[in-house]
Amino acid sequence: MLSRATRSGRLALAGCRQQLAAVQQTQAQRRLLSGSKSEDEGPKLWGGRFTGAVDPLMEKFNASIGFDKRMWKEDLHGSMCYTRALVRAGLLTEEEGSKMQEGLELVHKEWAAGDFKIKSSDEDIHSANERRLTELIGSDVAGKLHTGRSRNDQVATDVRLWLKAQVKDLQQELVQLMRTATNRAEAEVDIIFPGYTHLQPAQPIRWGHYLMAYCNMWKRDAERLQDLLKRVDVMPLGSGALAGHAFLGPDDRTALAEDIGFSQGPSWNSLDATSDRDFVVEFLFWASLTGVHISKFAEDCIIYSSNEFKYMAMSDAYSTGSSLMPQKKNPDACELLRGKSGRNIGNLTTMLVALKGLPSTYNKDLQEDKEPLFDSVDTMKGCLPIATGVLATLKLNTDRMQKGLSADMLATDLADYLVRKGVPFRETHHISGQAVQIAENQNKPLSSVTLEELKTLHSAFEEDVEKVWSFESSVESRDAQGSTSRRSVLQQTAAMKEWLDNYEKSA
After folding, report:
1. Do the beta carbons of residue 409 and residue 202 sit within 8 Å?
2. Boundaries of each Argininosuccinate lyase C-terminal domain copy (predicted)?
3. CA 146, CA 240: separation in Å to the nearest integer?
4. What range does the domain containing 78 cover?
């Protein structure tokens, strides 16, 4: 008689067999519904040790061709250069190398013309290009292309090549935004308007000084982008899957890096080169921070163009209306600039979370690097020219800006007046605050507080205190480097123009 444990074990085994049969039946049904068996679509690059078919659902789950196909040009460029490296290493004859190059050029033409046909068995851009190359020139030559190469070092190379090109484009867009800000700051240097802290009126500043504040933020963003490029511009190709290359000599990768166009040469460690995506994280951080700076500018434009402020008006080219309320003119461009900054932060978080739990070397999780990267590149390529357009077409309402200035914004100047009379600043700050209180109690502007009333606060007040009540004098008194005086603002714009010229030459 069987024991209870034995009976339970047999029941469990029977249950497992039933589950396995159900899974196999489901897989067969999926293959039937998909119209073809995955093994009929062509051999996998990794299929040698497998005998069973891949579930069609797994095929889709595993594939990245839907998004990494945008790297087709970089993938083919890498393969063309790698072909030449294989010829130099004696792994391909000159004739085989020429045939390989001709085939790769044909694949390139198909992609460029929009004629390349992706098949369901194409997992990624690498397998798609190799599959088509094999169809064009045969496996006897095409089968040698992947000698010593892994998709691990291949994809890392493709992503770096692709990102390099995108960084160059983004640098130009960022420069255009900065030039627009600098040119307006110089041309409109004489406009004075309220400066705010905590969204409360604080001190008068020049409009040009305000614009140069953002220009300096974007300058640091541009510097970070240029610095990032040094770490992107390193070649992983020749690292193999993780342990390195079995056929290339000690100096062959240096020649390969020069051929492909990696200015920083080949990577120094194959484990690191194939597995780390810190350069992707670094770019996503750049996109996040630059997006935050643009969002900050957009928020200012939204506030300053509101009916309560009316310091500026958005161009119709960057505004939309309401489907119900005919009078509405909505700052949608700025609201989207503000909203899209969150996408970049989300992409950065996605990438950091994907990386944080990985063991060393390559893991399939790294396939998740591309969609956040591609999305943030696309987002920034959309945001930068829109921000430039918004800034270039803003129409200022200088009358409203002037009316926004009030005498209480000169309270600091009143304190500074006493400092120049030899009174300690802590005391002058208190005295100026008392003058503000007098004005508030009598419901009159600070500039209307009489000399007699001021003298009750301190004997240092004299007739020349009247000079304090000038917004022009206020901004001109702040003449140190980086301040809001006319001379200082023009110094800022001149320095920024010189910096931009040098940056464009080096970018």
Report:
1. yes
2. 409-476
3. 10
4. 66-142
Q: Is residue 15 part of a domain?
A: no
Torsion of CA 63, 69, 70, 75, to 10 degrees: 110
- Give the per-residue pLDDT at 48: 57
Helix (H) or strand (E) holding 202: strand 200-206
In a domain, 55, yes or no: no
Which CATH number covers residue 420?
1.10.40.30
Q: Say which of 8, 306, 315, 322 is annotated catalytic.
A: 322
Q: Provide the sign of the torsion angle of the four alpha carbons 107, 112, 113, 118, taken in this order.
A: positive
184 and 329, same domain (yes or no)? yes
Q: Is residue 35 one of the residues assigned to a domain?
A: no
* C-alpha span between 271 and 453 (Å, rounded): 77
Is there a catalytic annotation at residue 322? yes
Tell me: do 175 and 112 sit in the same domain.
Answer: no
Q: Is the four-CA dihedral 5, 10, 14, 17 of positive or negative sign?
A: positive
Alpha helices in 233-277 (DSSP H): 252-260, 270-275
The burial class, CB within 10 Å (0-12 / 13-18 / 19+), for 415 is buried
Catalytic residue among 3, 198, 323, 506: 198
Give yes or no: residues 76 and 121 share one domain.
yes
DSSP-derived 3-state class of residue 36: coil
pLDDT reported for residue 59: 84
Distance CA 406, CA 193 (A): 10
Main-chain dihedrals φ then ψ at residue 204, nearest 5 degrees = -70, 140
Q: Which residues of the chain have pLDDT under 70?
A: 1-52
Domain membership flag for residue 54: no
Enter the pTM of the model: 0.88
How many distinct structural domains can be found in the chain?
3
**Concatenated DSSP letters of 168-199:** HHHHHHHHHHHHHHHHHHHHTTT-EEEEEETT
The pLDDT of residue 54: 78
Q: What is the pLDDT of residue 412?
A: 97
Task: Decide if 8 is catalytic.
Answer: no
Residue 375 sits in the same domain as residue 456: no
Residue 117 is given by DSSP the state: P
Q: In DSSP terms, which residues pair with 201 in a beta bridge?
A: 196
Q: Are 358 and 274 in contact (CB under 8 A)?
A: no
CB atoms within 10 A of CB 329: 13
Positive or negative, the Cα torsion across 478, 404, 177, 188? Answer: negative
List CB contacts of 295: < 8 A, sequence separation 6 or more: 337, 338, 341
Task: Specify the pLDDT at position 469.
Answer: 97
DSSP run (H or E) holding 388: helix 370-393
The predicted structure's pLDDT at residue 7: 60
- Statement to judge: residues 299 and 180 lie in one domain: yes
Which residue in this structure is represented by tokens 């041309």? 187
pLDDT score of 10: 59
CB 170 within 8 A of CB 381: yes
**Quick one: pLDDT at residue 38?**
42
